[in-house]
Specification:
alpha/beta
């Protein structure tokens, strides 16, 4: 069963994680949210649900403006070449639909099938912002509490400097 926004907030409260939520019109891309972010302090995320040919599932949460080289990421995390996971696989694994991908959806991966990759640029912010399982709101928590939440769901994040990985890949070409 997939968690609801209410379930997410109850879990955050149970963990003692302070959170603030701003309701807004549905946002499907980072670009669509540009104007709304002005009133929300902190780092804003982009979240990618990826898979390799062997079925390894990866959730990447990065600073919204971080450039990610998906064709190079696999070697840094030790899996096969990555591509975007299908909407059905996303819903099966994380219980959300495209446009609503979020680190908070890790609470729906009770079988621990998804690896979590977290960008250092996002963690450089005291506050980080994610959709609360649906793209019609944004929820802010501290960066430390995001990591604590992920660990509580059984997903120890692999913390990488995704911008540096992209820059190194560009320099190698």
């Amino acid at each position: 069963m997939t968690a609801s926004r209410t379930d997410l907030f109850a879990r955050l409260d149970a963990l003692g994680i302070a959170h603030t939520t701003h309701d807004h019109a549905p946002i499907f891309t980072v670009a669509e949210g540009e104007g709304m972010k002005d009133d929300m302090p902190g780092g804003h995320s982009k979240n990618l649900f990826l898979t390799d040919k062997k079925g390894q599932l990866v959730l990447v949460s990065a600073q919204a403006n971080t450039r990610i080289r998906i064709n190079r990421l696999h070697s840094a995390i030790g899996c096969g070449r990555l591509s975007f996971g299908s909407p059905d696989l996303l819903h099966e694994a994380l219980g959300v639909r495209p446009g609503s991908v979020t680190a908070f959806a890790l609470m729906n991966d009770t079988r621990g099938k998804v690896r979590f990759v977290l960008d250092t640029a996002l963690l450089a912010h005291e506050i980080v912002n994610f959709h609360p399982l649906d793209n019609n709101a944004t929820t802010a928590v501290s960066a430390d509490d995001l990591v604590r939440f992920a660990c509580d769901t059984g997903h120890e994040p692999l913390i990488l400097d995704l911008g540096a990985l992209a820059a190194a890949a560009d320099a190698a070409q």
